[in-house]
Amino acid sequence: MTSAPMRVGMIGLGAIGQGVLTQLAAMPDAAVDIVGVLVRDPSRPRLAGTPPVVGTVEALLALEPEVVVEVAGHEALAQLGPAVLRSGRDLIAVSVGALARPEVYDSLVAAACEGGAQITVASGAIGGLDAISAAAVGGITRVTHTTRKPATTLLGAEGAALTEPRELFRGTAREGVLEFPESVNVAAAVSLAGVGLDRTELVVVADPAITRNRHEVVVEGDFGSLRFEIENVPTTANPKTGRIVAMSIVRTLLRRCAPLAIG
Ligand SMILES: NC(=O)C1=CN([C@@H]2O[C@H](COP(=O)(O)OP(=O)(O)OC[C@H]3O[C@@H](n4cnc5c(N)ncnc54)[C@H](OP(=O)(O)O)[C@@H]3O)[C@@H](O)[C@H]2O)C=CC1
Ligand SMILES: O=C([O-])CC(=O)C(=O)O
Questions:
Q1: Residue 248 is inside which H or E element, if any?
Q2: Helix (H, G, I), strand (E, B), or coil: what is residue 2?
Q3: Which CATH architecture has domain 6-124+243-256?
Q4: Which residue, of 1, 161, 195, 251, has the fewest CB within 10 Å?
Q5: Class of the CATH-defined domain 129-232
Q6: Helix 15-25 and helix 244-256, axial crossing angle in degrees, nearest 10
Q7: CA 181 to ligand 1 center in whole angstroms
Q8: What stretch(es) of the chain map to CATH 3.30.360.10?
Q9: Reported pTM
Q10: Residues whose CB falls within 8 Å of the CB of residue 106, separated by 6 or more in sequence, listed in order
Q11: Ranges for the Aspartate dehydrogenase domain (predicted)?
């Protein structure tokens, strides 16, 4: 007996959202049905094959998704996430730097409790969150997260003149994820898995010599030590965003209904 495909709503149709649709289109056996996408301008023409687009969160929820994916940015998560969760739908989020604002964190968690729903932080452009959160159980003494992106990605035209790497930020993850809302959500994910946004040290570097987005995480604690590095190929649509982010959303969706879940 085959079960019905998972009904999924999506908020946002930019580099990641379009990437999710492209990945799923290449996986005809994936039992995932994107029943609707919430966009800011539903009247804008969309690519052939795009699922129905809607302009309000109420219209998205009326399509009866079982789960909603957020791929639209900090403000969208902060403003729309609570309604999704209060309706009882789980929310898979990537713009997790928004949780650095205590009022956003509190309203999302309160809405999840009220709706009996869960917020899942997608691994997005990073990895190792499973090991970091396991290490946190025994106690972590230090977490450092370094993000390097091509200079023009972080600085625009000004970056083209850079000949040496330039450190743009060094401080707590809480400050950094709010200063670079489109570039270091990964540091918020690492923080939430580990020792929190105030104890995670973040460095952001604009590097004229690289073409991929690099993230390095070092964790020390009772368990031993961990070093995780990833080099992400940027998407064409938004070079701040790695290709792997859309893949991580698809993986998170597939994991929800898999008989064997890894990690
Ligand atoms: N956790 C992680 O690893 C990562 C997280 N991110 C987060 O994901 C976000 C999206 O990334 P990406 O797809 O590359 O960004 P894009 O800028 O390519 O796309 C964002 C899309 O979201 C839409 N949008 C914005 N606000 C709303 C809203 N209120 N309702 C509906 N749609 C909305 C935009 O619409 P419009 O076309 O009208 O502007 C746009 O189409 C980033 O801003 C970042 O915060 C990104 C990369 C990695
Ligand atoms: O895609 C990446 O390299 C990471 C990113 O933009 C983010 O964390 O916001």
A1: helix 244-256
A2: coil
A3: 3-Layer(aba) Sandwich (3.40)
A4: 1
A5: alpha beta
A6: 60
A7: 10
A8: 129-232
A9: 0.97
A10: none
A11: 163-250
259: tokens are: 């008989």
Check: CB of residue 211 under 8 Å from CB of residue 154.
Answer: no
241 lines ligand 2 (CB under 6 A): yes
Choosing from 96, 177, 183 the residue with most ligand 2 atoms within 8 A of its CB, the one to mutate for a pocket test is 183
CB proximity list for 246: less than 8 A, separation 6 or greater: 15, 16, 17, 18, 19, 20, 22, 23, 71, 235
Measured CA to CA in angstroms, residue 195 lies from 105, 136, 199 at distances of 16, 7, 6
Catalytic residue among 215, 232, 245, 246: 215
Q: Is there a catalytic annotation at residue 145?
A: no
For CATH 3.40.50.720, list the domain ranges present in the chain.
6-124+243-256
Nearest CA-CA partner of 192 in 251, 143, 125: 143
Closest ligand 1 atom, residue 189 Cα = 1
Q: Which ligand neighbours the alpha carbon of 240 most closely?
A: 2
66 neighbors 75 (Cβ within 8 angstroms): no
| Residue-level pLDDT, tens digit, the chain, 263 residues | 468 999 999 999 999 999 999 999 999 999 999 999 999 999 999 999 999 999 999 999 999 999 999 999 999 999 999 999 999 999 999 999 999 999 999 999 999 999 999 999 999 999 999 999 999 999 999 999 999 999 999 999 999 999 999 999 999 999 999 999 999 999 999 999 999 999 999 999 999 999 999 999 999 999 999 999 999 999 999 999 999 999 999 999 999 999 999 98
